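Progress note, sequence design subtask.
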């Protein structure tokens, strides 16, 4: 087994053509805080998270994932991981060095097997944050990111072999075979999941709320704001987390969730779940059916940023 040097998920960075609409959505509706802003660039924090930011928005003509960022425990681990990837023939975008983003730190970037830019960093300054109070329906932290993949088996193998991710559970279909893989880097059931899709793209990003009441209040607030809901509210079987999926102004799927399962990594054995069983998709039975409409919206637009590092 590959030694795991990644500790956790830090942030997801998105490039969008409708930057102003996106910024208004994430700060005015979704509940994130704009902590740092430059021309056409905003770093958005979650009130309960020590991370400097959990989403970065960048103005661009193309809609794309700029990068997905993970943390490491030390600068030495960053160096070790960069050396391992280079030795294995993974294409580095940048060598380890000082980061110029909020909180500083030490890190590097590389392309994964399908061309997504991934950043690994350590020594980033902890953001001054606070406990989210009872009844506050705003994100506590970035829970997980799910990517669409045209080669999901290869993508799973890449993250297991090179980055030490472990498989938690798999969703299957009687005719289509295995369709989604939930991957972890710590006790949380998944920080990353990989979905089978005709093209690489963002499937969704998920934000943890304080508890069930806050999750439902948040779901209601976003609904009242007129944001299009595509699925939920409900509770998945894999991960045992709640879900409400909405579309941001660019058509990216964003999720409110809570109570994601934490597993005992020493004893956990991955399950194969047939997601055509209603209780697999939604244990509660309260969500609208998972159908072709929901699946198509989650396919998203093909990512235009593959094997093209973001300018910042």
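Output:
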């Amino acid at each position: 087994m590959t030694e795991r040097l990644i500790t956790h998920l830090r942030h997801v960075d998105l490039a969008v053509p409708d930057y102003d609409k996106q910024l208004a959505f994430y700060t005015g509706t979704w509940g994130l805080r704009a902590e740092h802003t430059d021309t056409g660039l905003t770093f958005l924090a979650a009130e309960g998270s020590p991370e400097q930011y959990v989403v970065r928005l960048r103005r661009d003509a193309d809609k794309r994932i700029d990068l997905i960022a993970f943390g490491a425990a030390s600068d030495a681990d960053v160096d070790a991981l960069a050396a391992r990837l280079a030795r294995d023939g993974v294409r580095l975008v940048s060598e380890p060095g000082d980061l110029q983003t909020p909180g500083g730190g030490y890190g590097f970037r590389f392309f994964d097997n399908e061309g997504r830019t991934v950043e690994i960093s350590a020594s980033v300054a902890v953001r001054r944050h606070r406990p989210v109070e009872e009844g506050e329906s705003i994100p506590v932290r970035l829970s997980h990111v799910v990517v669409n993949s045209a080669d999901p088996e290869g993508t799973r193998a890449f993250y297991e072999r090179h980055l030490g991710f472990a498989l938690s559970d798999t969703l299957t279909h009687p005719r289509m075979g295995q369709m989604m893989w939930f991957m972890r880097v710590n006790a949380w059931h998944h920080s990353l999941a990989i979905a089978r899709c005709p093209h690489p793209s963002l499937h969704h990003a998920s934000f943890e709320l304080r508890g069930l009441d806050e999750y439902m209040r948040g779901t209601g607030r976003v609904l009242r704001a007129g944001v299009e809901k595509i699925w939920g509210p409900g509770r998945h079987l894999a991960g045992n987390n709640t879900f409400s999926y909405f579309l941001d102004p660019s058509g990216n799927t964003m999720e409110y969730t809570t109570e994601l399962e934490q597993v005992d990594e020493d004893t956990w054995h991955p399950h194969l779940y047939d997601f055509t069983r209603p209780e697999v998709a939604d244990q509660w039975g309260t969500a609208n059916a998972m159908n072709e409409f929901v699946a198509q919206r989650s396919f998203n637009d093909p990512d235009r940023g593959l094997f093209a590092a973001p300018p910042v």
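Helices lie at 19-29, 75-87, 152-163, 212-224, 278-281, 292-299. Work on this subtask will continue into the next period as scheduled.
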